[in-house]
């Protein structure tokens, strides 16, 4: 149940940031799940803070409702499942989040 919540949150975030291509991919490989979108990306100066409670990016504040708790809560749930949730990469062409279980 907790993993469902993490993935749903990542998919919702990806959907909210979609660019012109409008593609979201979920890739499952061994002990990892990647959620990849073709969205607007997360500005580099905001990336260190995305897992902080109540942090909302400047662009997101203006366009999307929310409290800034989705990613911190998802990271906490992932840890409870023995995994880690990280931002693998983000640019103006999209973002990739990774859920990884340690071997």
Automatic annotation (TrEMBL):
Provide the catalytic activity annotation.
ATP + protein L-histidine = ADP + protein N-phospho-L-histidine
Q: Does the keyword field hold NADP?
A: no
**GO MF annotation terms:** ATP binding
This protein's source sits in the domain of life called Bacteria
Q: Name one Pfam family in it.
A: HATPase_c
Domain named Histidine kinase: residues: 1-103
Q: Which UniProt keywords apply?
A: ATP-binding, Kinase, Nucleotide-binding, Transferase, Two-component regulatory system
Q: Which InterPro entries does this entry report, sorted A to Z?
A: HATPase_C_sf, HATPase_dom, His_kinase_dom, Sensor_HK_Regulatory, Sig_transdc_His_kin-like_C
* Name of the protein: histidine kinase
Q: Which organism is it from?
A: Fictibacillus nanhaiensis
């Amino acid at each position: 149940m907790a993993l469902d919540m993490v993935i749903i949150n990542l998919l919702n975030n990806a959907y909210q940031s979609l660019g012109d291509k409008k593609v979201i991919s979920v890739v499952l490989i061994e002990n990892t799940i990647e959620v990849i979108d073709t969205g607007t990306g997360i500005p580099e100066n905001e990336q260190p803070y995305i897992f902080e409670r109540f942090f909302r990016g400047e662009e997101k504040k203006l366009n999307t409702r929310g409290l800034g708790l989705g990613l911190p809560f998802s990271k906490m749930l992932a840890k409870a499942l023995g995994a880690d949730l990280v931002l693998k990469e983000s640019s103006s062409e999209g973002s990739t989040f990774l859920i990884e279980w340690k071997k």
